[in-house]
Input
Amino acid sequence: MYINSAACRSFNDLAQYPVFPWVISDYESPTLDFNDVSIYRDLSKPVGALNPERLELFRLRYQETPKDQDAFLYGTHYSTPAYVLYYLLRCLPEHMLKLQNGKFDEPDRLFNSISETWNNVLANPTDLKELIPEFFCVETEGRFLVNEKDINFGIRQNRQQVADVALPAWAKTPIDFICMNKLALESEYVSAHLHEWIDLIFGYKQTGPEAVKANNLFHSLTYVDQIDIEGEEDPARKEIILMQINEFGQVPVRLFDKPHPQRFSSKEHLQVNSSHCTEIAKTPQLFSKITGPSPLDAAASKDLPPEPFNYEDVRHSKSKLDYGIITLQEFEQLIKQECISDASLHSLRPANVPVIEESLLMRTYSPHNESAVRSPPSHQSTAKDCSRMTTFNCN
Output
């Protein structure tokens, strides 16, 4: 989610909604084996290139494009307002009605089945959609997959009423499906290949010759750095550009000019962080250069016992540890309470990087204003403007 936020993707803009990848390719088997690489999608390719036969059609059109016109492989996009509302139809029906001029789409074109949607993404030349964060958010319990409001979406050609989204055989309930998706996202295979997908969506394979090589080239109007809406003087053309963005989506802001590093495997991560924790425990004086004397050290110098702390303090410290932000006192508290095992899967902030407060983390929801605020690029925002990132709540 941090990469999405840094690339100006926001829950408050359907044309710039956060984008997540399809990671599973098997929606027919009764069970999933996360050690079986065949169940995963090829993350080194964009959705449009997953089907070789369909890709050849895209490439033929690209090659036959007249030289005086913008050449592109894909005229549609992987993230559009229509795609977002396609997924969120059951919890945001009013948004779909507004998009569809007061009526729902044809029943057979709605989000009816995970398997059907995946197969359509692989075969349909006008369907290249990726996923949205809700597919991995355990907190929402997969409610966007359930017709909780009992809305009449119509009857399909097979005479079945459109109701809840049909799940793959390996998922018994919506929350089960979400958990399996999240486990797949955190699997060893995806961890070893997710950087390839990041290169396509947020990185150096997003535009230019590298995008052509990776079969990842979209229409020029979908790229943020290739249009200047404010500087456009022709009202008609400006309206066309805005319509293109609102209806056909936009590529995220490019964040990386070089290949994104591969994520550590869980074993490597554990080894690195265990070593780092050990070094910090051995050299607590490193923290004093940043945070000043530890309150525990100050108390000891006055022959006074350290201030008592309770479980809530420890739990708060563990939460901060998840962000890689922690003080020496909090670190010592975690060790004393035997909670440091939870730190083994998280990176502690290096000693030469200033400790920051949780309030300075980039967020997209403002508890103070009790409203969601679209997050600006991190280099354009101030610390006071940031609010905690949250997932869409489909209540």
About this structure: Residues 272-328, 338-395 have pLDDT under 50 and may be disordered. The chain has 14 helices and two strands. The chain has two domains: 2-248, 266-356. Residues 73 and 217 are 5 Å apart (CA to CA).
